[in-house]
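Section 5.1 Outputs to date
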Amino acid sequence: MSVRIGRCTNFRRCEAADRWQVISIPDANSFVCPRCNEKLVEVRDSLHDEVAKPGGYGSGVGLKLLVSAVVILVGIACVVGWQKFSGAKAAGASGAQHTILRLAGSNTIGDEMGPSLAEAFLKGQGASDVHIVAGANPQEKMVLGTLPGDGAPSVITIAAHGSATAFTAMAANNCDIGMASRKIKPEEANTLTSLGDMTAPASEHIVGLDGIAVIVNSANPIDQLDKDHIRQLFTGEIKDWSQAGPFSGTVKIYARNDNSGTYDTFKSLVLAGKPLASGAQRIEDSQTLSEAVAADPKAIGFIGLPYIQSAKPLAVSDQGTLSLLPTRLTVGTEDYLFSRRLYLYTSANSTNKYVRQFVEFALSKQGQDVVGASGFVAQNVVAQAQTVAENAPEEYKRLTKDANRLSLDFRFQSGQAVLDNKAMVDLGRVVSLIADLKYSGDKIMLFGFADGKGGLQANESLSLSRAKTVESLFIQRGLKPAVVRGYGSGVAVASNDTDEGKGKNRRVEIWMKN
């Protein structure tokens, strides 16, 4: 008796689909899954001729061959990249489905935020039956949905193996949008010049904000550490907790792997060129790392905000700065010492219409709501009360008393009054908030700050120039701020001894009078 061979694609709804089970159906029977009654996808490849033969797929030998073939295919996927594999297989053996976007890179973005954005994007395009399908391993996913007028699903593939893989995948033309939890490095940008200037606004998009939380077990009595102690713990200079606070026991270090943008950022912000302790346990997946720290009383690790979960975050400080926990306000304003930006990178001249549409959606209010729901800090602007440092200038303390600070700052390039890429997008968000609140310009106060690079007078002049730059942009939009001041390097939020710290200190804060 001849049979047809198929697979069920009713993922997450049918055990046969989730197990990639190969199903034999006699020709006389309906070609549907016996478990869920959904139509099967017929296997059409060079091995299909063996189905009805002795030793074919219906026999024990044939099943062993099939399993071997599947294992080989999964191995190929890991080697050549999920994008190529999913492009060939996401459509199923029938080839009916169509991959419209390929995202690759950061596990921080790609674990939950990326799939959630892809789901919301497809729904926003009017797609029906939108759902997420697991890939070959936890770092790979597909998001499927049927767009209006289409007879078969469209697919967005997501491969989240670390920020570094975003740029290698883009260079190999294996992805359309690179996900990175750190800024692209100059050498990476140089390999992608054929796609345009990857640091220009047309290619570099900030999709959200995150704070790298330093986490410990909830039983650890230490609540805060300064940057030096954190570095010494992770480099192995401090080997016992008693050297850092009221606790004892051998320090157990957990860290992300080398492909991770989280590790890259942590290495740059904290380790200061020193190597991670040789005994550190390296982990690819954020969730797994958080769970390991939460289960180990002597542990310390670092992780993105959404993955803190059962672990305990520490408040961190630097030379002369307040000790801050990673919160929506401290990360949104980027005052938190280990705050970072999350990026999407694209070709400046992509011919794929969905690339531009996806990025525009991700940066929109609706897309940012998805970012916030994923546990990261969205860039939709809110006004919140904040206590200022005791050593702040008296006028600054007086002006900010009973006022609310907006949940973002405008930041600038070194030594200039030129806004960075994020600030230009944020300007529209701030103006929209003010319009929604029906506020006039007399509610707005702008306070400029500088790093400690220059002299006192030069820094005060530069900080005021930055505040006036923002003032002119508000005036162009019909809003004249009531107060515009420059306070030089008087209220540092980070150390001026590092480039990262200086970048945080070059800012204009926006406050709203009640």
